[in-house]
Amino acid sequence: MRILVIGRGGREHAIIWALKKSESVSRIYCAPGNAGIAKMAECVPIPESNFEELRQFAIDIGVDLVVVGPEDPLFEGIVDYFEEKRIPVFGPNKRAAIIEGSKVFTKELLAKYKIPTAEYRSFENYDEALDYLHKQKIPIVIKADGLAAGKGVTVAQSMEEAEQALKAMMVDKEFGEAGRKVVIEEFLSGQEMSILAFVDGNVVRPMVAAQDHKPVYDHDEGPNTGGMGTYSPVPHIPQSVYDQAVEQILKPAAEAMVQEDRPFRGVLYAGLMITEDGPKTIEFNCRFGDPETQVVLPRLKTDLADIFVATVNGRLQDMDIQWSDEAAVCVVLASGGYPGPYAKGIPIYGLDEVRESVVFHAGTEFKDGQVVTNGGRLLGVTGIGRTIAEARDKAYADAAKIRYEGRHYRTDIAQKALIAAAGRSDS
Ligand code: AMP
Ligand code: GLY
């Protein structure tokens, strides 16, 4: 089987790393890929946004399956575009990708189908939004409706901060069309957890849980990023809570999409807050998480290509998907300055000294035979072990060997799990 993976991040590297293990996969292509992906797949320099060239390339090489990694092309209808020519493609179509593309759509869906989430109101009028805001308690959460490159959510700790966020979106139009509508949402407190699931219509096959670390600095300080590290399993969140999230959130959401005539096919990702009243939905994404994928797929025992093919062919319900009991911890190495402005083209040394971890590349490229920086998040150093502690030690030992100017990574990835484990053994 020939597979074309679309994307250039650590998520796509992890997908390709998992596909490499499949006996049914003969060739893997990636558009456009990165320096790490180039070692295990044939990279073609076609950007994710050039649907026409991507489709022509897929036809030319006689591809058997296309896998779409990032959200942007999904929102823009890349799946519909491939399906027009009957090319098998894994991912939601445009109508279904709206579950990530519009926060207002998703809040209305959750309310209509009584799926647990934060209380909210949505607004198109600034004065009405401001009036409502002034009647709310602090902290409060302000969200732009559309996609804003991960910057469209403000968890405001003061009324001034909330007012500023609202003004930036609705008056100054900092996010353009994405901020035309806003959601003002109740602040939820608790631990966050991500559950991704393979979904085909009503059929939901959840993956093992993961926990992301969004803020750029240790102890969850600083601005939010795409994710500075992840780990799986999340041992301090009980199985019963996981089961509750699957039964009360993921399955009803998939069913709701079918009811709305927007059946979802692909990976549905639930971002959850585990509150005192149980799990509540923070958001849905319409794709694999990044860097969640880097810790979830290493624990997958079933052939990933088989799962993709079964999903595309309407046979996901026949799949028995198995997961290992191992733990995985991914530490993201970022460019100095990220998530703000950062330099590119800086040489990265020490990759060949890595011994115990898998390094998934994100914003890297080859220049004159040297791996150089080419993005904000650069590498996801992933340790795999019998326990979180073992996986974490491996990841940090190897992360320290990788050197480049401005290197930044968090030193407390998975610490919450270790503290919770220590607390348990003390009691
Ligand atoms: P999102 O882009 O929707 O994932 O939001 C980014 C981050 O903002 C989440 O990972 C949470 O940490 C935080 N967040 C979003 N909504 C809420 C909420 N209602 N209560 C508390 N934190 C939230
Ligand atoms: N790690 C968060 C995301 O993939 O959206």
UniProtKB/TrEMBL annotation:
It comes from the Bacteria. Pathway: Purine metabolism; IMP biosynthesis via de novo pathway; N(1)-(5-phospho-D-ribosyl)glycinamide from 5-phospho-alpha-D-ribose 1-diphosphate: step 2/2. Residues 107-313 form the ATP-grasp domain. Keywords: ATP-binding, Ligase, Nucleotide-binding, Purine biosynthesis. The keyword Nucleotide-binding applies. Coiled coil: none annotated. One of its GO terms (molecular function) is phosphoribosylamine-glycine ligase activity. Belongs to the GARS family. This is Phosphoribosylamine--glycine ligase. It comes from Ferviditalea candida. The lineage of its organism: Bacteria, Bacillati, Bacillota, Bacilli, Bacillales.
